[in-house]
Specification:
44 strands; 1 helix; mainly beta; Immunoglobulin-like
Length: 558
């Protein structure tokens, strides 16, 4: 319900003659808040409002029997003496008018309490004369009256108290007052008081405010100007009985965007904003909005930031739409997330191992690693060891919990040379032979190593000569690629089998004795294998070499 304030002012008269329907007095009481006082002993005449379409009463009050409220005029009254109050009203010329009366109330500020239960008298008849009866009014109570021009035709409405033992208070009451608040600091505060004929005004308020204007203003108002403002009037030298009050709210919110901060590249953070001052009820908005998950809360989370960003917080006070701003800078430390890779050694021989290493940089500085490679290889440690048999590329992905980066490293694998010690051999006892080493794979530059080296004249030749062998010997060959340093690891063996036994000669001469200068041409027969012999002839020795050997050579004696 609307709150109706009746200002009962002594010596306030409305004269029919000279008032047009657009005159200030005809318009000033067109709502409950702008109601004029009604005083016992006074006859009121005013030109009824006429409009096309007709102006209806304000929304809010329950109008009871009134199905329409065209061209309303509002009045209020305060009971001075208890008893019935009968008010007669009519129009001239005679046209249809209606009314509704609410009460009783304990205060004049009741525009939001005009309910159906408070209606004490109401008429929606076709007559041009109406009678409002207020039963058993009690001193100090208030009543509200609305009179409407249903006909919407030009006429004057005349009304006055014509009966009853009660009466209304005719002392001077202060007019209703209001302000344009709530407002924001720096705006102009406008104070407003209803017009009272012949009145002078006096306003007082916070911060030693005094004004004698009806509607004073305070430019560049600040929160210190908030508070209760009072207005009283004086008519014909008589002051009003008390003052009207209006409460002023001037809000100056303060935005707090929080302290500047630093974060690593590519991560997000939470801003910590809040508002203070003002009414305490705020809306928040941050810019740049596209760098926040929700820019319309006090403490939003940023997206993952890659550049330093200045965020601006706007705090809007809900009560007056006042706003304040503040900035906070989020600095980005470091650079983009990256990962460096190494393999130590980067080149290996088949069968050897290499240790991979991933080194993260930038980003959030706390990393996890994920290695992958051929054959289902996977590892989550920073420096796994691998043993590829062929040249292989390994990939690693590093993550800092916000972003990831990928890199790879190649482990070059050189093949091992394949040594071949040659075919096995058989040789007679006590002679030498040559080994037949060879190699496959690798480059063309090799180092050969034969063992046992003590049974070779030179142990690091490809085809070395053995010593004179008196027993079967197994030789092993190891080849080193001089370019890649890869060493053969296959079994390259050759067996040199020694047959027979040690050299053994048992010469026999037949005949055993001959004569020197024997003219008969005798010969001596020697056994197999004898290459040379020393012959004793009658105390003389002679030496003969036989080439080639014969099983039973004839040795001529000369």
């Amino acid at each position: 319900m609307k709150k109706l304030v009746f200002l009962i002012i002594v010596s306030f008269f409305l004269y029919c003659n000279g008032f047009s329907q657009n005159s200030p007095l005809a318009q000033q009481n067109d709502s409950c808040q702008r109601a004029l006082p009604f005083c016992t002993g006074t006859t009121y005449t005013f030109p009824a409002g006429v409009s096309t379409p007709s102006i209806q009463g304000q929304v809010g009050p329950s109008y009871g029997c009134l199905y329409s409220t065209p061209n309303p005029a509002w009045y209020y009254m305060r009971v001075a003496n208890s008893g019935n109050i009968i008010i007669n009203m009519h129009s001239s010329p005679a046209h249809d008018i209606d009314f509704c009366c609410w009460g009783p109330f304990t205060s004049q500020f009741v525009c939001n309490q005009l309910t159906a239960a408070k209606i004490v008298s109401c008429s929606y008849s076709l007559a041009s004369t109406e009678t409002c009866t207020i039963p058993t009014g009690v001193t100090g109570q208030y009543y509200i009256l609305i009179i409407t021009n249903y006909s919407n035709l030009p006429c004057n409405i005349i009304f006055s108290q014509t009966g009853g033992t009660g009466s209304t208070d005719c002392s001077i009451l202060p007019p209703p007052c209001s302000n344009n608040g709530p407002i924001c600091a720096g705006q102009t505060l406008q104070l407003t008081a209803n017009t009272v004929s012949g009145a002078t005004y006096r306003w007082t308020g916070p911060n030693n405010f005094i004004s004698y204007q009806q509607n004073p203003s305070i430019p560049n108002a600040q929160p210190v100007n908030s508070g209760n403002y009072y207005v009283n009037i004086m008519v014909n030298g008589q002051p009003s009985a008390d003052s009207s009050k209006t409460v002023v709210h001037i809000f100056k919110p303060v935005a707090h965007a929080g302290n500047d901060t630093s974060i690593n590249w590519g991560v997000y953070t939470t801003l910590h904003g809040y508002g203070s001052g003002g009414s305490g009820h705020y809306h928040f908005h941050w810019e740049p909005a596209n760098k926040l998950v929700n820019p319309n809360i006090a403490s939003p989370t940023t997206v993952q930031l890659q550049t330093s960003t200045i965020f601006t917080l706007t705090v809007t006070d809900d009560s007056a739409s006042c706003h304040a701003t503040d900035d906070v800078t989020v600095n980005i430390a470091g650079g983009p997330l990256g990962v460096g890779t190494t393999a130590t050694p980067s080149t290996i021989c088949a069968g050897e191992t290499s240790q991979l290493l991933a080194v993260g940089s930038g980003g959030a500085t706390t990393y996890t690693f994920a290695w992958t490679g051929p054959g289902g290889f996977a590892s989550t440690i920073q420096n796994p060891t691998v043993q590829p048999m062929v040249t292989t590329v390994y990939s690693v992905t590093v993550s800092d919990g916000y972003n990831s980066a990928t890199n790879s490293v190649t482990v070059n694998v050189n093949p091992l040379p394949v040594a071949d010690a040659g075919p096995n051999k058989s040789i007679p006892y006590g002679i030498y032979t040559f080994l037949s080493g060879s190699v496959n794979g690798g480059t063309d530059t090799y180092f050969y190593a034969w063992v046992p080296a003590d049974k070779l004249l030179v142990a690091n030749e490809q085809q070395p000569q053995t010593t004179n062998l008196v027993s079967t010997t197994v030789y092993s060959l190891t080849v080193t690629d001089m370019v890649t340093t890869c060493v053969s690891n296959n079994q390259a063996n050759v067996t040199i089998e020694v047959t027979g036994g040690p050299l053994n000669v048992n010469p026999v001469a037949t005949p055993e004795w001959i004569c020197r200068d024997d003219t008969t041409g005798r010969y001596m027969h020697l056994p197999v294998g004898v290459m040379s012999a020393t012959i004793l002839m009658h105390g003389l020795q002679t030496h003969r070499d036989l080439h080639p050997p014969y099983q039973n050579p004839l040795f001529p004696l000369l």
